[in-house]
Amino acid sequence: MTGLAPGARLPERGFGPVTMTDVVRYQGASGDLNPMHHDDELARAAGYPAAFSVGMLGAGWLAAYCTDHFGEESVRRFRTRFTQVVYRGDRLTASAEVVRLFEQDGERRLELAIQLRRDDGALVVDGSAEFALT
Question: Which of 21, 71, 130, 132 has its CA 20 to 30 A from that of 114?
Fold first, then answer.
């Protein structure tokens, strides 16, 4: 990628709307079968308006967004923090900003500030990632 300098932003990418199929497929792949993610009645009994997405599904979409730009083999660090619940029907937008370019362990690296937001602007996943540059 060219034009990578602190403050540069990657092109945004949209995901969704989130569907029950997205959630259940992720649950099956990850082994996280918590019914709060697919059972509306149970989620409502716990005080939620409906079943909600698995947090790691959003983190996975954010990881895919990053690796589409830099490749899976270049990942050196990936950290996320979940800030809000995502429900079926939500549309999400991934974004990233270059924080710094540096050298470590004999390779050029890039650090990104990464975010996943709902269409209403709410931040749902916040994080950072490092990638080796070739």
Answer: 21
pTM, full prediction: 0.92
- Which of helix, strand or coil describes residue 47? coil
* Residue pointed to by tokens 């924080």: 99
pLDDT at 1: 55
Picking from 93, 115, 86, the residue whose alpha carbon sits closest to that of residue 19 is 86
In a domain, 5, yes or no: no
Whose structure tokens read 């947090």?
55
Residue 4 lies in a domain: no
Domain that holds residue 86: 13-132
Would you say 123 and 105 are in contact if contact means Cβ atoms under 8 Å apart? no
Mean pLDDT across 62-76: 97
Q: 73 lies in a domain? A: yes
Residue 108 maps to a domain: yes
